[in-house]
Design brief:
The chain has 310 residues and is α+β, with helices and mostly antiparallel strands. Helices cover 50% and strands 12% of the residues. α1 packs antiparallel against α3, α4 crosses α5 and α4 packs across α6.
């Protein structure tokens, strides 16, 4: 139904696009024709005045009304052959039309004796004369040529509301300057101590490129992860947050991870599904802590994290 409505609306727009200039052109041409007709009538009548038997009280001339009427009939026939849109209606109160045209112009010719008054009737165009089949043909042609584009555009437009209704997925902002982690959408922020903050920034960066490496609490930290954590701790020193020496990130790792998880629970309290991307998994089941547990962030990508003050 929407597709059909779109086609009908598009056809009407194309039709108006072609019809309006056509109708305006017809109007201008008609006005030009009327102007030429009036000028022709005045010029021709001025030349024919000497042989017209018009009444003139100033010169005591009775005139011949019948001959004047015949002259007007013959003149109007010539105007019709020339395709002019104006006709002589009255010459000095002599008319051969019982019901005068409502649209007319009055002209006065100067002559010996009394001035001669002319009423020139003007032909008005009918509504149908402003219309043409060509704009319809062109509109149908353009609809045919652009039909695929209209359907595709309508399909895309119908999908826009569904896209707009989908809420934007929040990301995690880690602010080293304020030592907080922030939910980008809700703006909920939670502070983190120096050690878990540095370790978590390093862990998120390490896991974006090393997802295949298993991180187990009973194994030594990978050298690259340790170097990243030390790098961010030095950055905290540069920002004036601490003057202590670098901590051993391998010590009390479970406590560090617990502090990170607690902070993430607060930041993503309204988005538990999103939290899974950032949440270091807990150990589950007997023996899993020593053998199978992997606390790495297996789903995280670089676009999920924004670090301020890096």
């Amino acid at each position: 139904m929407l597709k059909h409505n779109k086609i009908i609306i598009s056809f009407m727009l194309f039709w108006l696009l072609f019809q309006l200039p056509f109708s305006f052109g017809v109007y201008l041409e008609h006005q030009s024709n009327l102007e030429k007709s009036i000028n022709h009538i005045q010029t021709r009548l001025a030349l024919d005045l000497p042989r017209l038997s018009l009444p003139d009280k100033a010169l005591n001339i009775v005139g011949d009304e019948v001959s004047v009427i015949n002259y007007m009939k013959q003149f109007n026939l010539q105007l019709e052959k020339l395709d002019y849109s104006a006709r002589i209606d009255t010459i000095k109160n002599i008319s051969f039309i019982d019901v005068p045209n409502e649209q007319y112009v009055e002209r006065i010719l100067l002559a010996p004796g009394e001035p001669i008054t002319l009423n020139i009737s003007l032909k008005s165009l009918k509504v149908t004369e402003y219309l043409s089949v060509m704009p319809v043909v062109f509109a149908l042609l353009f609809i045919y040529l652009t039909l695929d584009h209209i359907v595709i555009w309508q399909s895309r437009k119908s999908q826009i509301p569904a896209i707009e209704e989908q809420p934007q997925q929040p990301i995690l902002i880690i602010d080293l300057i304020e030592k907080v982690i922030i939910n980008s959408e809700t703006k909920v922020k939670t502070p983190l101590a120096n050690k878990p903050l540095c370790f978590y920034v390093a862990l998120s960066e390490f896991c974006t490129t090393n997802k295949e490496i298993v991180l187990n609490q009973n194994k030594d930290l990978p050298i690259e992860l340790t170097e990243l954590a030390n790098k961010y701790f030095l950055r905290l020193i540069e920002l004036g947050h601490t003057v202590r020496k670098r901590p051993n990130f391998s010590n009390s790792l479970e406590k560090t991870l617990s502090e990170i998880r607690a902070a993430l629970d607060e930041v993503f309290i309204d988005a538990p599904d999103v939290k899974e991307i950032y949440y270091p998994p807990k150990a589950h089941g007997e023996g899993s802590r020593s053998k199978l547990h992997h606390y790495g962030l297996t789903s995280i990508e670089s676009q999920h994290i924004q670090v301020i003050g890096k």
